[in-house]
Amino acid sequence: MKVWIDVDNSPHVPFFLPQIREIERLGHSVTVTSRESFQTQGLLDLAGLSHFKIGRHYGKKMFFKMIGGVIRALQLYAFARGRGFNVAANHGSGPQTLAAYLLKIPCVGMTDYEHQIDNLFNILSKMLVPEFIPNDVLQRKKVQVEKIVKYPGLKEDVYVCDFHPNLTILDELNIDHNKIVVTIRPPAEEAHYHNKKSEHLLSEVIDFVCEIQNTAVVVFPRTDKQRRNILELAGKYTDKIIIPKKVINGLDMIWHSDLVISGGGTMTREAAALFVPAYSIFSGQIGAVDRYLESSGRLQLISSSDQIRKIIIKKRERVWPIPTNSTLVQFVVNEILSAAR
């Protein structure tokens, strides 16, 4: 079979890599399309994965997002037409879902944030979601529950089982191994669910961790604007803040971190999956997965200055190997291939 995977955001690169390997191991071919968005294409290049670059991010304003989504759907339609794809798969790519529907290609869409489930795309595709999203939440979204399949574990569990850490990352970044390594990911300011409160919390978090002795603070900006803002802060904390000059595998950095603080969802959930202390300054609607991680003690939600001051900054003991569900990749791949059949 010919499988078409669309990767339109950076977290989806590690998510789909083990699936692509498994699909190819089973004797099928995979074609990957990508969007210019938040280091997505750089991460694909870093992984050595060939991909067709189609479309870009159109900014945070909803009007331009909608127009850009339609434009990219048409671009993907033109690309996929006549290529004989048997099934399409994505993690939240509305444009691919629409293009696949127009081309009558079965489509599997995935999401781990119920507030992003769109009724239209639920109608147009089969959907995979983590088991931690309750049925009553899905019913309130008025989606076709019979078209939704739940997989065991987190989205991040799908690819953590395939992870082997790069042991040279700290040396590449000139970080002393005795330092307390704090990795920070700013909020997704261009996302429609962004809340400005996260930006204020980010500034306070950076001030707090930089004031602690013996810390090395690695920041991964999402956009050029964020990079400029962080560089201004770096002038104040010259000996503390490190902004990688090249694309780095996020899992490698998380593994070498003593704690992770993020304004988004994926990096904190990756930290939780790797048993690294994780703190979220996300200020939008909290999803069921993060509620589950909070209740299980694997994630702490930060919403105030007082809570920031209670973040524990210390060296941690690393757990290896990571206890994982090695069958989860096969589960997801089987769902994709069964949609084609």
Characterization of the model:
There is one protein chain. The protein has 341 residues and is an alpha/beta fold. It folds into 2 domains: 2-162 and 326-340, Glycogen Phosphorylase B (Rossmann fold, 3-Layer(aba) Sandwich), CATH 3.40.50.2000; 169-308, Rossmann fold, CATH 3.40.50.2000. It is 40% helix and 17% strand. It has helices at residues 12-25, 40-46, 62-80, 94-102, 119-124, 135-140, 157-160, 169-172, 197-211, 224-236, 250-255, 266-273, 288-295, 305-308, 328-340; strands at residues 2-7, 29-36, 52-56, 87-90, 107-110, 126-130, 148-151, 180-185, 215-219, 241-242, 259-262, 278-280, 300-301. The strands form 2 sheets. A 7-stranded parallel β-sheet has the order 3-2-1-4-5-6-7, with helices on both faces. Helix 2 (40-46) links the parallel strand 2 and strand 3 (52-56). Helix 1 (12-25) crosses helix 15 and helix 3 (62-80) packs across helix 4 (94-102). The longest helix is centred in the first third of the chain and has 19 residues, at 62-80. The radius of gyration is 20 Å and the shape is globular. The N and C termini lie close together (9 Å).
